[in-house]
Amino acid sequence: MLQGSLELLLPSYTNGSPSFTDVLSLLWAPRAHFWFLYALLLIFALSTLAYRLLPQRFSAVFGIFSIIMYLTSSMISDDKITNYITENTAFFALGIIFSLHIKTQWLDSKLALVGLFLAFILGQWIFHGYLSLEYRDRGIQSLLLAIISIGFIVSLSIHLAKFNLSFFAYLGRCSMAIYLMHVVAGGAARALLSQLGIHSFIEQLVIGFIFALLAPLAVLVLINKLKIPYMFSAPLCSCFANIFAKAAKLTHKKKQTGT
Q1: Sign of the dihedral defined by the CA atoms of residues 104, 105, 106, 111, in that order
Q2: pLDDT for the residue 8
Q3: What is the mean pLDDT of residues 49-76?
Q4: Model pLDDT for residues 209-228, shown as the tens digit of each residue
Q5: pLDDT tens, position by position, 12-37
Q6: Which of 155, 177, 194, 213 could be a cystine partner for 107, CB 3.0 to 4.6 Å?
Q7: Which residues contact 211 (CB under 8 A, 6 or more apart)?
Q8: Maximum Cα–Cα distance for the chain, whole Å?
């Protein structure tokens, strides 16, 4: 609501131009980057149900099914909510398969890091340059590129974890706050720079990036200091908290027994 209101007040400094109806429709018609939260919630709920009902040995079957949904998503439905599921469940399922059946040690070597980095660069060039495709063009090419890119990020993260990079670890813990507030912070920086007569692309990019990163961190520190609840989490009652805790224990037990 806050971001939408600011976009209404400062349309010339933002990439979108929502109406007041768009802002009020956020709960059932998410816009901008908020779609991700809805997609994550839906996929998490459906995947939890699927993995709860299916034995662990069938996780690969669910993964294959989710890949088929991804490749045929354009033929399944044009509904936005359905597309959230068909276009993104594959990555959730592949993550589960990786955590259950693939050893992370495979990505721990420098050879894997360099190889995935080269594959990442080459894949990006082929996809965006040679094939002239973009993120909307979903298919086997985009799926392979996504898997390579995720693999590279995982390998890079494994190697970075070997160093005492506390600031990056802190950024990871604050990623939700940064994700939700970076648009407002970046828009504010752009408005301020424009008022100061700074229109250089490089200057706006660098200063906007820094502001979009640090401003949410400052707000998060203030929220924690004032102990404002439920800013980045749902106000779950103790009943639901107990259910989730039991589900987590059961999942951990099934993973240990391999059933």
Answers
A1: positive
A2: 59
A3: 83
A4: 999 899 999 989 998 888 88
A5: 555 556 666 666 666 666 666 777 77
A6: 155
A7: 185, 186, 188, 189
A8: 64
Query: How many percent of the chain have pLDDT more than 90?
Result: 21
Q: What angle do CA 93, 95, 97 make, to 5 degrees?
A: 70
| CA–CA distance, 254 with 259 (Å, rounded to integer) | 5
For the chain, the residue count is 259
Location of structure tokens 């998060």: 220
Q: So what's the pLDDT on residue 1?
A: 58
Domain ranges of the chain: 104-163
Query: Residue 68 in 3-state DSSP?
Result: helix
Contact 70, 90 (CB under 8 A): yes
Task: Report CA dihedral (81, 83, 87, 91) to the nearest 10 degrees.
Answer: 10
Query: What are the tokens at 220?
Result: 């998060």
